């Protein structure tokens, strides 16, 4: 008997799907290797628009200098003596303060994260929301995903436990639910209203869950949305909190794009923490944040946090026990969180550069998003909500009947078929809508708005799209 | 109905136990905070001997300068231009090479780890063992624990799946099995023979599993042992591989202490990869390694790898899918792995310092382990195998009957009762044997051999032990 076959593995593992790094991403890696080895392809470089990874090669969004200078000094503290003139004074002071609190970043920290950094996170939250935050109920994590995965694994207490997931969703949620044998209870976002969240759609999903004998445990909200970029208004947020109260749901608020706002005047961000506090609601809330997005874009550090509100101390102790088995989050990520929640202040030597760098990133992202949405909307058969937040666009594409037939013959979802052709022809890697979920018969794809050469990038998208439509007999 | 109570959580979570960061560790943290706030306690500092964390405050094992210099340049590449004289030439060249391959360490890498670093790991393994290694079957991880946890979660395919675990064991294994509802199949190590591994004990555990209707999936071997420090000889390793063949088991080899050898002449390390290759065995093997131990001690970076041998490409694809949901291991950990597998060479500018630093760490650990074992063995009621490897001692303690009674009255395991008294009186935090597993009626504790002031440290242990025995009426 062979000891190890796919059929002998945990069956939940087989059900896990994660399209963001799936077939297309794997194929794009193969193309990258071929180009590196000098092979000739229809394109000169691979553009990884499948993933919000601002600092990757080819996009090269520069890191925030302050964050990296502090990190360099934490790596090798002697640098402050050996090359004192190279670092701004506030950076040297900041690193010295962190070293005093943490010691070596080569040591395990408290499993929940360095207490001093958690205090700084709490102050950041208090300043953002105007309500108190308890560092004892904050957990630093290796990116938001690690926290989401842990919470979902704890909440699912039987194969009949369900969690409400927006459709379209970031596939971490369905992947984690599949892994832990829980039920994804889908509620649809309203594309015709800028991907807004509807209380009725969630109530319908709850009614259906009850019919199916599934017990809903939690409601996931991604705000700003991924892949949609939509932003919730406060009135809707209040209704969502009341809905959680009515149905005894834990509210899982994925708020990692909270500062990626392209029209902050008309579409501002409000945290669920603020709404829950303002309503004096007893709803248990977990809010996730990350250094991978925002202007920091420090995906590779693996840093983030979640804050628990309305959690009893015995539940907090249980979460602590679970994170302690993994020892501690990466220290590079933890100090990245500290730099995110404590950026330079106006009188600091580092401030002008920090301000310039972050303003540039915000402006470029807003401008690219707008240009891309405009140009995609001009293409035949493409409609695209102009996202007010996050890093993505999620255009809907209408495909020729012949293309849909060809996709079926190839055993692919039509939008995956489209995305594979896009990759083969242009080197641009996007994620088909089937990876995020969509209504039956609709097709989308998600692409990031991170690519610097927007003209070249959108130009290639346009040429491909027109050629594809023509190849399959038009719309 | 309250939406969130301990009883509403996943019942597997409740069963998870992880003593290394359990009650004692939490209490020691409280003492540390009290001392920081100026409170008077019977001791002046807390000594965290509960965890192999060499660079923690109070122990302060210095990091390897080479590793940190490379890391500082990766954090802020401009440093090579701004302060070129501060860095050795080979460090600047190494960082430039890594930057060329990786780009920014703020970007997500390949989910399996940077391809170039995996190639370097493969070369390291080939040089160590003399057999080929496939970078495509190597996964970089956020420390060894993350890999162990993933593999166990994939292998458990029903609540009647079991994994053979040595007793005593590192509690990550039982914690992960509890979390994923698998069965820990215990086999006992032989304390009377320097904690050696017995084929008969494993065969007995397998027979018992069959009686209980449990299907054994894998055999865990920790070599060098944790908490025992024992080293396997090659003859035993060959028998273990054959046992895995007979019983269709996957072999999970936790080899994170592979260079922590105190008597390398009489007790050398051989990898299971080498034995499996030499025997031309088809046994599926996973070997785990880490930058947290060895001489690197870079626990906070969260870096490590596992290599799969005799795994089919469809299983590798399944592992890739699972790690892709978590995006990628921390880049700080990945470059730490690179520095571990590619240290400076004799002609490099960094070599003399690297050699001095690593020799010092090896010598200090060997010397402390020996002194501590000798002195513990002289205490009444204490017997301690002089560990040839790893970072720990695991003394057996015979306790007075009155102490055992007092422990029962307090609702504690007797060795936990002893360890709590040790912490309260001396500030030394160890982990009771009940956290690792031991035979009924036996008591042990694990302590690390990392504390620099061995005289002060062992002196405190001795005084406490003698006082404890006397307090409870002698042996």
Rounded to an integer, what's the Rg of chain A over CA atoms?
A: 23 Å
CATH class call of the largest domain in chain A:
Alpha Beta
- List how many beta strands of chain A DSSP finds: 14
- Name the CATH homologous superfamily of the largest domain in chain A: Type I PLP-dependent aspartate aminotransferase-like (Major domain)
Sheet with the most strands: spatial strand order of chain A: 2-8-7-6-5-3-4
Average predicted local confidence, pLDDT of chain A: 93
Helix content of chain A: 40-55%
Shape of chain A: globular
Low-confidence stretches of chain A: none
Largest sheet of chain A: 7 strands, mixed
**How many angstroms does the end-to-end distance of chain A come to?**
54 Å
By secondary-structure content and strand pairing, the structural class of chain A works out as alpha/beta
The number of domains of chain A is: 2
**Percent range for β-strand residues of chain A:** 5-15%
At the third CATH level, what is the topology name of the largest domain in chain A? Aspartate Aminotransferase, domain 2
Going by CATH, the architecture of the largest domain in chain A would be 3-Layer(aba) Sandwich
- Our count of helices of chain A gives 17
